[in-house]
Amino acid sequence: MITREQWRKFIDQPAVEWTIFVLGILFMIAAIPVGALPGPGGVFVFAIGLAMVLKTSMWAKRRYVRFKRSKPKAGSWADWALRRRSARRRSKLQKEREAEALTTSPSETIAGPERRAN
C-alpha cells in the first residue's frame, strides 16, 4: 500500500508532473468534440483536464486566481466543481463570520472591535 507521502513524492517528479499536465491539456482539447455529443459529457471531461493542469502548473494557477477575482460567482462554482479544500475552508470561515455578526448586537458593532465577554 502506498502512503500519502510516497504518493506526493511520486507526483512531484518532473516526468510525472509533465505527463499529468499533457494529459490535462489533452482532456481539455477532447472536451470540444465530446461536448458536441448529447449530454453534459464535455463539461466533465474539461473539468478533469482543468484539475490536472491546475495541479501541475503555477502559470495556470495564477490565471485561475485572476479569473476568480474578476468573476467571483463563476470562481466559486469552479471551486465547488474542483472540490478545493481552500474553497471549503474560506466558505466555512465566511459562514462563521456571518453567524458571529448575527449574534452580535448593533450597539456592539458600532462601539468598535472589542469582543463580547461570554
How is this structure best described in words?
Helix 3 packs across helix 4 and helix 4 packs across helix 5. The termini are far apart. This protein is mostly helical and 118 residues long. Helices cover 81% and strands 0% of the residues.
Concise overview:
This protein is mostly helical. Helix content is 81%, strand content 0%.
Topology:
Layout: H1 4-11, H2 14-36, H3 41-56, H4 58-70, H5 72-82, H6 85-103, H7 106-111
Helix pairs in contact: 2-3, 3-4, 4-5
Key structural traits:
118 residues, mainly alpha, extended
- Taken from the alpha-carbon principal axes, the silhouette is extended
Order of helices and strands: HHHHHHH
Which stretches are low in confidence, meaning pLDDT under 50 for 5 or more residues running? none
User: Which percent range describes the beta-strand content?
Assistant: under 5%
What's the gyration radius in Å? 20 Å
